[in-house]
Design a protein that fits this description.
Chain A is 25% helix and 28% strand. Chain A has 294 residues and is α/β, with parallel strands linked by helices. At the A-B interface, α4 and α5 of A face α4 and α5 of B.
Chain lengths: 294, 294
């Protein structure tokens, strides 16, 4: 048996960094008290979703690694003796920023980091302005609770990312995310988008025989430029098992801290009955390295 | 507008080849009468699912291409002026067989063929005994109703296959399949498997912004070796739109011929709001060509 208790921390974020961090820290404590050995925070949990507008002032939100913010979460991991997946706006150098998940060990040391590889850019999600695409590849992070396939938000739409983490031995796929409804979308379109987001991540679970932990922010955040009507982040953080079965889903419209037990060994059982890795046609996949086959 | 009326033909198969073919032909006629321009048959629709047992006698079911069976379906395509996706047990040479989808044009000519690339082998699904893995790659087939990304059954578990078809310009993903419950599986496991099968294919739709047409056989077929308790094929042929939204789902336990209208142009709209192809990290996908990254 190799069960792991994973804490999911879904909350709103406001304009005060210290308040956002306090919210995360309180929920980490709550999850740890409830037995979590691994806690996963949502994407960019220290700030509002700044990418709704392209403004140079927003770079003030970024943190160096190491730095004060990193130190704060390192201490939380150590205090609660948990492995902690954070999602930070990394300032690597003047003019060079990444969307970076920093993973802390139970002793507060940095187990590893992942820099978001696929960067979106859509109205209200202007991430290409802020984040240089990751240069660390799709490398799982080894921790005392297992080898973690940490990816971030937009990565969740790419089967390639999940597959590469799985091929490198990841035991869990983990997605901190920040996604929601554009307020003017009609309800049917909102529902299709939510279902699509769930379907594709459940699909990654199935294709790779891996559990998926997805932690999304909740709450409404206005677009202060007035260009759009703001984003209703749709919460609904979830855990799926290695057949894509939903083990837990958080509510849409409010904060939620929840500890879910995942049986990592089910990967072994599921991959025995569905041995997809056995039959991959690696002799015929060269086209995957092309932009388009025209 | 570029709507296409697709006919799905889900039925049982018995031990008489002529009866199985008659069933398919009657359903093709029904779908054509209902306006279908494209008709998709289920996997290996001319025979029972022979792969429940490894027996050399079963090779008698195979057909050469061209040959009498091919001629029969060519004539049906021509008679009804439809594009027709069939799924045949191809005898290519003595001792060399494939699981092959032959696609016919409206004039009865062969538009192209696809040989199943990923071959399963599990108790009651001994396909590796019968089928040499395909050697035609993941090439869409151009027809008068569009460029068709035809894949077959086990391929449906591989995001790589769907992606390669999409990158090569497929406008629809099409999966003839033959999958069902092993009768002794407990009900919760049966439900997880069915959901997984739907989730991963809906995921292919989402990842690639493409509609998916999946046609599965129905009915119970005994395992004449007595090794297992036979397969309840789960029917539930379905059509999903390019956000993975279910447009139609057939019943589980009976034959079903249905014509569904698909708006191929929604791919354009969906790929504008979700431009996943723009951001693929082809510089970092080399690992996809490896068996495992150890």
């Amino acid at each position: 048996m190799s069960n792991i208790k994973v804490g999911l921390v879904q909350h709103t974020c406001g304009s005060q960094k210290s308040a956002n961090i306090s919210d995360s820290l309180a929920a980490i404590a709550e999850a740890a008290t409830a037995g979590a050995e691994l806690v996963v925070l949502q994407e960019l949990h220290c700030s509002p979703y700044i990418c709704q507008v392209e403004e140079v002032e927003q770079f003030d939100w970024a943190d160096p690694i190491p730095g004060l913010t990193v130190q704060t979460f390192a201490e939380a991991a150590k205090r609660h003796e948990i492995v902690l997946v954070t999602s930070l706006f990394e300032k690597r150098a003047p003019g060079l920023y990444h969307n970076t998940a920093v993973v802390f060990e139970k002793d507060g040391s940095i187990a590893g980091k992942y820099r978001k590889m696929h960067i979106p850019d859509d109205p209200a999600y202007y991430e290409k302005f802020y984040f240089t695409p990751g240069d660390l590849g799709f490398e799982p992070i080894d921790t005392s609770v297992g080898r973690l396939g940490v990816l971030i938000c937009w990565d969740q739409w790419y089967p390639e990312a999940a597959r590469l983490m799985a091929l490198a031995g990841a035991e869990l796929l983990i997605y901190p995310t920040a996604i929601g409804y554009e307020t003017t979308d009609e309800e049917a379109e909102q529902q299709r988008q939510l279902d699509a987001w769930r379907s594709i991540q459940r699909g990654h679970a199935v294709a790779n025989g891996l559990p998926v932990v997805c932690v999304n922010r909740t709450g409404f955040e206005p677009d202060w430029s007035g260009q759009t009507k703001g984003i209703h982040f749709w919460g609904r953080s979830f855990v799926a098992g290695p057949q894509g079965e939903i083990l837990f889903e958080a509510p849409q419209d409010r904060a939620c801290t929840k500890v879910i037990e995942i049986d990592k060994d089910r990967t072994e059982a599921v991959r025995r009955i569905w041995p997809f890795f056995r039959d991959r046609r690696i002799d015929a996949y060269q086209g995957l390295l092309k932009r388009y086959l025209d």
